[in-house]
Design brief:
Layout lengths: L1 E14 L4 H9 L2 E15 L4 E5 L6 H9 L6 E6 L8 H5 L2 E5 L11 H12 L3 H15 L14 H13 L5 E5 L7 H18 L2 E5 L3 H7 L2 E6 L2 E7 L10 H12 L2
Parallel strand pairs: 3-7, 3-8, 5-6, 6-7
Antiparallel strand pairs: 1-2, 1-4, 8-9
Helix pairs in contact: 5-6
């Protein structure tokens, strides 16, 4: 379903020192630092798999998800998802994927949630019967009935994230990309989101790629993990492949990061 081979992506970030002199200098001469976000990344994911894509901040997780979503174009390598190149056939590609970025919203801030859902239905061209069926299922499973008439800006973070997940699934995507979906959520909201994702995978065989720093999310949802650091794949296996994973998982991950020098 997902075949990634030798992906590379480089960013050039402007740098300057503090102070007026440095600011003036930067007007005429900019200094750039080369950041290798992805460096020869390869992996494959089969239909229906739930995979944890983990690593420290700046490891390349979000860059990978953006390439898989068709948002970014890599400098080199190949990516085939359902027989398509994401950034070359974006319209057809996005009809089969759902994306949730925990720190960004796809809902319109000042209008009720239902209005955003109606707009997304039109954007994706979802037939009315299928839309109503999906909306009813998602409303029930995520307990959204009291939220649909509320403007997004008035929702708590946990309420908004449940609405975001529902929005990403209204068009029945085959693949769901979750980038920090439980960031900032309380314990009750986290449990509800995890339970829903598991149920979605069981009922619809949805492929899930999860990036998170919360190892409880990884333990609850995935059997396979891919560890990335400094733009390189360092480990592709299971939680049992992490030394000390049967004890304190957070400490085990911290030790693993130190061992890899990331």
């Amino acid at each position: 379903m997902i075949e990634v081979q030798h992906l590379c992506k480089t960013f050039y970030v402007a740098r300057r020192g503090a102070g007026f002199g440095q600011a003036l200098h930067s007007l005429f001469h900019k200094d750039y630092e080369e950041i290798r976000a992805l460096d020869d990344v390869s992996f494959s994911i089969q239909e229906g798999e739930m995979v944890g894509y983990i690593g420290p901040n700046g490891a390349g997780k979000s860059s990978t998800i953006k390439i898989l979503s068709g948002i970014l174009v890599p400098d080199g390598g190949s990516c085939i998802i359902n027989g398509r190149v994401p950034w070359q056939d974006r319209i057809s590609h996005v009809r089969e994927i759902g994306v949730v970025f925990g720190q960004r919203t796809q809902l319109w801030w000042d209008v009720p949630v239902m209005d955003s859902y109606e707009l997304l239905r039109d954007i994706y061209g979802v037939p009315e019967a299928i839309y109503q069926e999906n909306l009813e299922e998602l409303t029930d499973l995520l307990n959204l009935s009291e939220l649909l008439k509320t403007p997004v800006r008035q929702l708590s973070l946990g309420q908004r994230m449940r609405c975001e997940i529902a929005a990403s699934l209204l068009h029945n995507p085959r693949i769901l990309f979750l980038d920090e979906p439980t960031i900032g959520l309380d314990a009750v909201s986290k449990l509800a989101v995890r339970k829903f994702i598991l149920r979605r995978n069981q009922l619809h065989h949805t492929t899930v790629i999860l990036t998170t720093h919360d190892m409880q999310d990884i333990e609850a949802l995935t059997k396979r993990i891919i560890l990335i650091g400094k733009g390189k794949i360092l480990l592709d296996g299971t939680l049992d492949d992490i030394p000390g994973s049967h004890g304190n998982m957070e400490q085990a991950m911290a030790d693993l990061y130190r061992n890899y020098g990331i």
